[in-house]
Structures are given as C-alpha cells and as structure tokens.
Amino acid sequence: xxxxxxxxxxxxxxxxxxxxxxxxxxxxxxxxxxxxxxxxxxxxxxxxxxxxxxxxxxxxxxxxxxxxxxxxxxxxxxxxxxxxxxxxxxxxxxxxxxxxxxxxxxxxxxxxxxxxxxxxxxxxxxxxxxxxxxxxxxxxxxxxxxxxxxxxxxxxxxxxxxxxxxxxxxxxxxxxxxxxxxxxxxxxxxxxxxxxxxxxxxxxxxxxxxxxxxxxxxxxxxxxxxxxxxxxxxxxxxxxxxxxxxxxxxxxxxxxxxxxxxxxxxxxxxxxxxxxxxxxxxxxxxxxxxxxxxxxxxxxxxxxxxxxxxxxxxxxxxxxxxxxxxxxxxxxxxxxxxxxxxxxxxxxxxxxxxxxxxxxxxxxxxxxxxxxxxxxxxxxxxxxxxxxxxxxxxxxxxxxxxxxxxxxxxxxxxxxxxxxxxxxxxxxxxxxxxxxxxxxxxxxxxxxxxxxxxxxxxxxxxxxxxxxxxxxxxxxxxxxxxxxxxxxxxxxxxxxxxxxxxxxxxxxxxxxxxxxxxxxxxxxxxxxxxxxxxxxxxxxxxxxxxxxxxxxxxxxxxxxxxxxxxxxxxxxxxxxxxxxxxxxxxxxxxxxxxxxxxxxxxxxxxxxxxxxxxxxxxxxxxxxxxxxxxxxxxxxxxxxxxxxxxxxxxxxxxxxxxxxxxxxxxxxxxxxxxxxxxxxxxxxxxxxxxxxxxxxxxxxxxxxxxxxxxxxxxxxxxxxxxxxxxxxxxxxxxxxxxxxxxxxxxxxxxxxxxxxxxxxxxxxxxxxxxxxxxxxxxxxxxxxxxxxxxxxxxxxxxxxxxxxxxxxxxxxxxxxxxxxxxxxxxxxxxxxxxxxxxxxxxxxxxxxxxxxxxxxxxxxxxxxxxxxxxxxxxxxxxxxxxxxxxxxxxxxxxxxxxxxxxxxxxxxxx
Length: 910
Hints:
Blueprint: E1 13-15, E2 24-25, H1 46-49, E3 58-62, E4 65-68, H2 69-83, E5 90-94, H3 98-110, E6 114-118, H4 122-132, E7 136-140, E8 146-150, E9 163-168, E10 178-182, H5 183-197, E11 204-206, H6 214-225, E12 229-231, H7 240-248, E13 253-256, H8 258-266, E14 279-282, H9 289-302, E15 305-310, E16 320-322, E17 336-337, E18 342-346, E19 357-362, E20 369-371, E21 386-394, E22 400-405, E23 410-412, E24 415-417, H10 419-428, E25 433-438, E26 441-447, H11 454-465, E27 472-477, H12 490-497, H13 507-522, H14 540-554, H15 566-570, E28 597-599, E29 602-604, H16 616-621, E30 622-626, H17 627-643, H18 652-667, H19 674-703, H20 708-711, H21 715-718, H22 730-746, H23 749-757, H24 761-774, H25 789-804, H26 808-821, H27 830-845, E31 848-852, H28 853-864, H29 866-873, H30 885-909
Parallel strand pairs: 1-8, 3-12, 5-6, 5-7, 6-9, 11-12, 13-14, 14-15, 26-27
Antiparallel strand pairs: 1-2, 3-4, 7-8, 9-10, 10-20, 15-16, 16-17, 18-19, 19-21, 21-22, 23-24, 25-26, 28-29, 30-31
Helix pairs in contact: 2-3, 5-6, 13-14, 14-28, 17-18, 17-28, 17-29, 18-25, 18-27, 19-22, 19-29, 19-30, 22-25, 24-25, 25-26, 26-27, 29-30
C-alpha cells in the first residue's frame, strides 16, 4: 500500500512556546507501542483507542493510496504522544483529508477535547480561536503543510473529565455557542448508528459531507468503529471524478442531505451502475416524501437500501431512522428511535390537535449541554433530555411524524405564521421555497421554475395566511441558499429578499455579468447561476478564452473551475470596494468616492479582505497557468518556428495530440446523460472539422499543392501522399478520426456505462490497444510512420488517461508507459523524443505552472488559436522571403489568430 502521509503527509510540524521565539520543527514519530495503540489514559473515546485491533484492513482510501488500520493507529499514537499527557483544548480545522482525521482521532483517543470548526472558513476559525483561546490549533498553513500550533504546554482551561467534542449547531459556524459532547455521547451514537445500519468491516463509505458537520462526522465514527473503510474525498457527487473514485474503491455507502439528492438527480444517479452499493442514507433536513419513495424504490430495484434519518447536533448526530422496508409505504415519517433512545411528546399550548406535541428525546447520546464561553468547559451534564423544538405526532403504527417547528413561528401584522406550513403550501403548488420571518415581513426564497411567479405566489401566501401581500417579500433564485452542510440558510433568505441599499452593487450583479460572459463565449442564452462551463457545452477551443476572461473578473481560478457552477465562482470575487489610493497605500482624500475595479466595461467591486496579507497589486498580478494551456501555446510556437524554420525543435504536434486526449476527457466525457454527451461531442467535432475543411479546400484550389483527399481529411486514410506537403494536415485528420470513432462508440449504451464506471480503466485499455498501432505492423503502418492516426492514437489515449488519473500509482504507470513506448518513434531524433516526454510528463504530473498576468494573456491567445494557426501557417510563411524568418513567424501567428476570430464566430452562428 502507498503511505498517504508523505510530506504532511509527513507528520505535522509543531510550533511550541518557549523563551525564544516559537519555531516550527518536524513532528517526530515516537517509538510505537504494541499494535500502535496510544498509551492508556483515564479519558478517551474507546473506538479511537482500539483502531489497531483491525490490523491490516484498509482504513482510509485517499487520492494518494490506501492506509491500513495498523498504520493509522501508529499515526494516531504519534500525534497523541505529541499532544502530551496533560489534557488541552484542541481547535481542529476539519476537512475530509487524512491529516485532519489523524489529529481528530489522536485527540479523542488521548482525551483532549476537540473544538471542530470548518477548515475552509477562516472567519469561523478566527472567531472561535478568539472566543475560546484553544491550547493547540491544528490546521494547514499557507503552503498546505499541516501544523500543530502549541500555544501553551499545559491548559489555561478547566476541562470537565467527560468533555470530548465541541461542535457548532447548524447555521452557527463561528458563533461562540457550541454543543458539548462527552466521550460516552460519541461512542454510544456511533455504536447505535453502526447497529441499525448494519455496518460491517467490509463496508466502504465515501465522505460526501464535511467532517465538521455532525452528520458527516458520524459517518466517519460509525465506520471506524466497525473496522470499515473510508473513501476520503472532498469532491462533490456532481463531479465525474467522485464516481470514478467511488467505483474504484468499491464504495458501499453514500450519505446525503436534501441538496445532495438534488445533485444526484442532475447527474443521472438512477442510471448509474454501482454494483457494490449497499445503502444510501439521508438526514440533515426534510426530503419530500415522494422523493423518499422514489429513491427507496430505486434502491429496491438496484439492490441497495434507503435509510431516512432524523437528528440534531445536540444528540451527537442521530435520534431516529425509518426502516428501509417502510420507506415506500411511509415516506413522510421520520421513523422510530435509534437503539438505546426514546421519544415522548411534550404538550404544547395553542395546539388544536391533542396528539401533537414537542418531540423530546432521551438517550446516551444527548449532549452534556451548551457552551457559550471558556468557563462553560468545566461544566458537567446540564441537560438530561433534548427538547428538539419540532412538533410531532406518533402514528398508530408507532412511527413518528414531524408536522412543524415550534421555534419557527413568526408574527406578521399580529398574526402567528408557521414558515414550515408556508413551505408545504408552496410545495403542493409545485414550488420549492424557503420561508422565514424578517421583522414585520415574511421572507420567501423560491426556486426558479415555470410555477415560480413572484406576484402569484405572494397573493397565494397572503390569501392562505390572512396577511397583506405587502408584508411578503419574494425573490426567485436559480438555486436556494444552503449552509455548507446542505441545510437551508435562512439568514441568507432574509438578506436576499431585502432591497439592496442604494448605490451598492449587489452580488447578483456580478452573477448576471458572469452569466452574460458565459452566454457570449459559449453562445448559450440559457446560462444561469447553476450552469457550469461543462454543462453549457464548453470545449477546449472556448476553454482558454473563458478562463482568461474569468481570471480578469475574479482574480484567480481553481483548477476545476470548468465543472463549478457560476454561483460558486461568484464567491471567489472579493466582495467590497476599495477606496481610491488603497492600491498604493495612500489615504483617500476626504469625501473621495470609492473606486470600483472595472471588468468588461462594467464596474466590479473587490478588496483584499482582512484575512489576506496580499496587496491588491499582487492579487492582480500573481497568476498560475494551466499546464494544458501552456503546452498548447508552446506547442504551436514550436511547430510554426520549426517549419519556417526560425529554429528546429520538433515534437510539438505529438505533445498536442496528448493534450487533445486530456481535453477530450475533461470537456466531453462529463457527468451529463448519454444523449447530451453525444450532442456536445458532435458539436465539438464540427468546430474542428468545418473550419479545417474550409481552409484546406481553399488551399487545394488555390495552390495545387494538395490532393483533393486533403480537403476531405482523407489523406492519412487513403495513404495517397508522397510529398511532404501532402502530410501537412495529418494532425487535424488524426484528431477528427479519433473524435468520430469515439463518438460512435460512446453512442452504444453499454460502452457509455463502462466509461462512467471505469473512468481510468477504459482509457488505459485504449492505450494498450493504441500501442499495437504504435509498432511496425506492415498492414497498418502509414508511409510516414510517426504521422499516421493508428500510430499516434496511443498518445491521445495517454492524455485521456492522464485526465482521469487520481493517484500517484496511476500517474506513475502512465509515465512508465511513456518512457518505454516513445523511444524509437522518431528514429534518430533524441531531442524530439525528449521534448515529447517532457511535455507529456508535465501534463501527467503538474496541473498548473507559475505565471504572470501578461504571460497568461499571450499564452491564452496562442492556445485558443492553436488549431487555426496550425491550419493557416503552411500558406503564410512560404510567401515571406527566406531572409526574414522572424517576420514569417509572426505573420503566420497573426493570420492564424485572425482566422480563429472569424471561424469561431461563423461556426457559432452555424
């Protein structure tokens, strides 16, 4: 197995206080005790202390490899040893990564209370650090290296012996109000969940929810308790790469909140083949009964079980579950108490139905109580049973049903309104909405669809509730606001429904601008905040232009930006304006107007923000450049320069074949359903073939240098060329052949399913097939050996596999194939071989390269025009005198860029 704890994966670094300034030192591994277990302590959560009992079973499956329980226990023991024998408060920036999990388990096993906060929320980390003054802060530094910042050797707090875990309640990330959980709470809830779900050591669960969220954490705990495997990932279920990881790891369990099921619907989950899936669990909010029934029926047909569950952070995670065999018959119920727990109904005043009361839960997983300051960490149990705030009834069959929320009643113009009832009313009219009170108004955020007419809904709610329509604020959104855990964000509903202050550009303004940009570049008038570059049919030809325009707008992009919806990209833009002089450090003159940055002719706000040490100037100029884009730009420069020649450095076209395969996987093999995939693929083929045939036909007619087979892209297939110029367009022919054949193959449902299930295995198999054509088979070999489609297809398949490679082992395999198969392809041209090896190795291993803004713009123009420069340069440089090779070079680039601008617009219109 591969040890995923390489370098931070080397153990964390630790900064320790002393008389001298603190310094980060390597975190050594102490001698491992028997079986890697931590030393015996009076405190701790049992399952975290007994990890080594599962020996060499796989505990964690990460992008870097697998980790056994024995190795995990050793890492946990080493970290527990570093935390020391004196109990200290550990603030942990949670994340679905191995290093965070090791620190968490080490603290639980050694009895150090853990304050778990969202690792991607700097505001929450700062707020809770200031509020609780933790003794140790565990989080990655600015370079991604995991560190333990030991702020003191002992503890400044009085910590109750039972205290194990501190969690924010739903919606309160960064709030000083925390839930205090004991060692017994954590252990008991984990055992109960593992029991009713039937988790065994053969299970493998994906971390589809964040670790800092109690539901996501309970998935981790309950599976480690039973010696099961965890597929550690921070990918969304909307990403094809998630499903590739899940299938490869033979995943058995998926957990989701209602929003997760929205995403599953979008990616065609019901059509996926997941032969190892055993259960799907749902909690974190109400899932509509008809959807519960639909997923339960899907599970029955597909061989897995649907568990609907109910819980709160105050009960560690879960309080009730609906047995799977009842999910289709009673999808509206939350079910029965979990093993070891019980419910009762507490009478509520003003309830007309005597059978309805507040649901009160008792069990060993009920919290110790709340904490609102460090002084509360010394408290023991202050809560014996949990008043959930939910109104419920117990049906005759013994199942509990939630009918409302006691704490969500609001008063509008003196009338008592229950927002949950309003949501149910709108749901019956085909509208999904979030409803909450905001002062004297009822705030409604409505999901956009055909029935979502704001005025009509306002009148409907007004008539039903008996309040004036003027007291109802409605906003229609492409996606309803949710918290990181997927629950409704009611504070955002209040904020979004309020009128924007005059003179302040709302965030929606930037979203509209981004939608216009997507519509302009991709010629898709239907672009919304839910759209992504891939979902709108973006391809490698429009990718570069889009990435550059977005960088100008947002200041930087993640490598997977093309799969993210506009809504998420909008969040990358710093939100507030800077006063004039901020960039230079000068104070603005009195009364000076704020100066917004400008993008695309429209004002846009930005700021450095308190959490960022970078200046506005560095924010603008520090850039990275995607390796694929860089290779396209450098490749076309080398091709043109070598043909003139300005210099001779060949191999660029063969690198671009690999890049084409890489982009094929990224932009065409998306999570869309099969027909949408095929439409996108055929459009992509047309965008390559139409301008190519048009230009080459002109060259055939006007120059007489080419056979008509060239115009039809058939020269390689018919093998008619004997002159060098007749093979000029071998690259275009090969690319079109590959795309057409793959489009035909992907039209076969079985092959489409195989590709989705074996995202890395399919291109690897095609790479093996391509290697047959790579070697000298007389019946297949073309006249010019290294230019024939059958000879270079393996490079295309290699690029495709590189885009799907997610582990070090997979990338190493591809590199080995490249190093073994490429030598000899170009006969006695070692420099050409070296260049192709270097370029494709970068593609396999390095996603981005450091760059600068101006360099990005140049590379972007060259990369987006690379196909057109390749097409046109053969007819440009021969007309420039041989004494002026540099002029011929720049003229070739200029003509190709010009043809790109014309051809792109024409093809879009067609």
